[in-house]
Amino acid sequence: MFTGIVEEQGILQQCIETGLLISARHILQDVAEKDSIAVDGICLTVTELGTDWFRVDTMPETIRRTRLASLHPGDHLNLERSLLANGRMGGHMVQGHVEACAPILSTREDGIGLDVVIALPHDLRSYIIPKGFVALNGVSLTVVDVWADRFSISLIPYTREHTNLGQAVEGMLLNLETDIVGRYVARFFQSAQFNQ
């Protein structure tokens, strides 16, 4: 379980079909092999590590469902260690189970914020609501508005400085995970209607 509060931006060193090699410092202070790290919002298992790098394996389903296939060495990745039971819940409950990869449709400066409009995959439309939670590249964000085929968020300066969402441009692909509580509620009502 994660919170969507990014701890560090790592640098992708190597990206092959079966795994990633990522350089990092801060998050490795108390990480061991077999621990989970959210990499751009994807829950991945550390399989090997050094003092300033770690390796994770990637399955074909992970490649199909996320933006990993579009990455290149040198790209910045949002990193978060799994939540400690005695830690603060600063964002929202993030599982690291990316549901879709969605492109940015537009960006617009709005005072100190950056408004970002993102395509809304058809099968996730019932899970995204105004003022609800969404995780984009592992970052916990509040949904500003929702339309039939898109939704918007607004990025504060801190998020732009400390995550790879600061590089947001039209066409950039984002890993998207909807709110788990919302998914369960929607599933409950769908099942109740089906069983009537």
UniProtKB/TrEMBL annotation:
UniProt entry keywords in alphabetical sequence: Repeat, Riboflavin biosynthesis, Transferase
UniProt-listed Enzyme Commission number(s): 2.5.1.9
Lumazine-binding repeats: 1-92, 93-189
Catalytic activity entry: 2 6,7-dimethyl-8-(1-D-ribityl)lumazine + H(+) = 5-amino-6-(D-ribitylamino)uracil + riboflavin
Pfam families reported in the protein's UniProt record: Lum_binding (PF00677)
InterPro entries referenced in this protein's UniProt entry, alphabetically: ATP_synth_asu-like_sf, Lumazine-bd, Lumazine-bd_dom, Riboflavin_synthase-like_b-brl
Domain annotation Lumazine-binding: ranges: 1-92, 93-189
Pathway(s): Cofactor biosynthesis; riboflavin biosynthesis; riboflavin from 2-hydroxy-3-oxobutyl phosphate and 5-amino-6-(D-ribitylamino)uracil: step 2/2
Cross-referenced SUPFAM superfamilies: Riboflavin synthase domain-like
Transmembrane domains' residue ranges: none
Protein function: Catalyzes the dismutation of two molecules of 6,7-dimethyl-8-ribityllumazine, resulting in the formation of riboflavin and 5-amino-6-(D-ribitylamino)uracil.
PANTHER family with a match to the protein in the record: RIBOFLAVIN SYNTHASE, RIBOFLAVIN SYNTHASE ALPHA CHAIN
Protein's UniProt name: Riboflavin synthase
Source species: Dictyobacter formicarum
Upper taxonomic lineage: Bacteria, Bacillati, Chloroflexota, Ktedonobacteria, Ktedonobacterales
